[in-house]
Amino acid sequence: MSEPSTPSSREAELGAFLRAHRERLTPADVGLPPGRRRRTPGLRREEVAQLAGLSATWVTWLEQGRPVSMSARALTSLALALRLSRAEHAYLFALAGRPAPRDDAEPAVPPALLASVHAIAGPAYLLDRQWNALAWNAAAANLFVGWLDPASTERNLMRAMFLSPALQALVEDWPHRAARLVAEFRVHSLRHAEDPPTRALVEGLRAESAAFRTAWASQDVEERQGGRRGFHHPTRGLLAFEQLTMVPPAAPGLMLGMLLPAA
Q1: In this predicted model, what pLDDT tens digit does every residue of 136-171 receive, in sequence order?
Q2: Please, is 199 exposed, middle or buried when counting C-beta atoms within 10 Å of its C-beta (0-12, 13-18, 19+)?
Q3: What pLDDT, on the 0 to 100 scale, is given for residue 3?
Q4: CA–CA separation, 132 vs 128, rounded Å?
Q5: Which residues cross the membrane (predicted)?
Q6: Domain assignments of the chain as residue spans, ordered by start
């Protein structure tokens, strides 16, 4: 078993990471004039410091692997100056030994992700942070009576699960599935539990549904997993599917659900 990284090695890695990303940028990339001839590629440390509103000495020390304590705001400014991606931004915070930054804005839905929902042959749907359905295909509308069918007006999965008699009749072993759904939602919504939309959803369901209130009070947590899902469809009879759930890397606040015919 390898030895855990020491602070000095992590600081050296942080310095190498910052230096590599600084050298990838040109003045034109960040709206700066080219200036005098450059002996090394990329931006100068002084330019990065200017863009981030930081001391050039701090930027130099960070790249040299010296122990410099940086606030979350300063790290974010540095990430913006270096044009870091979402993953690179999170990695920068990890190297600096700080919690990953929260992204309070609703994630944008990539057009390709929306198109994929309709390209899937079986029932498929896309949920936001509060499990409101953002998109679904015709197969999902046909299956999910009481939620995604044209006659229903409630598009939030949690509210439909506990307040729609039609969806409760559709879902096989509803008491178990409903309680499991609450445990899964508790995990999925953890990062956004204090956001007003999430709090309003939970408090509203606690007030309107005794079953939800009991399930929420149990404090159970479960990872969102696939597996067999049975449905008592009012016109098609008993149906069985294998559920797959994915969190798209390009929109980590969203969740894509797919149902494939069970073998």
Answers
A1: 999 999 999 999 999 998 999 999 999 999 999 999
A2: middle
A3: 43
A4: 5
A5: none
A6: 7-95, 111-261
Compute how many other C-beta atoms are within 10 angstroms of the C-beta atom of residue 254.
Answer: 21
145 three-class SS: coil
Phi, psi (5° rounding) for residue 99? -60, 145
CA dihedral for 157, 104, 102, 218, sign (positive or negative) = negative
Angle at Cα 94 formed by Cα 10 and Cα 192, nearest 5°? Answer: 170
Superfamily (CATH H level) for 7-95:
lambda repressor-like DNA-binding domains (1.10.260.40)
- The span from the first CA to the last CA of the chain, in angstroms, equals 42
Nearest alpha-carbon partner for 17 in 83, 98, 88: 88
Residue 90 near residue 252 (C-beta atoms within 8 A): no
Give the C-alpha separation, 48 to 25, whole Å.
10
> Residue 256 has which token pair?
């894509």
- Neighbouring C-beta atoms of residue 50, cutoff 10 Å: 16
pTM, two decimal places = 0.62
Fold of 111-261: Beta-Lactamase (3.30.450)
The H or E element containing residue 238 is strand 237-246
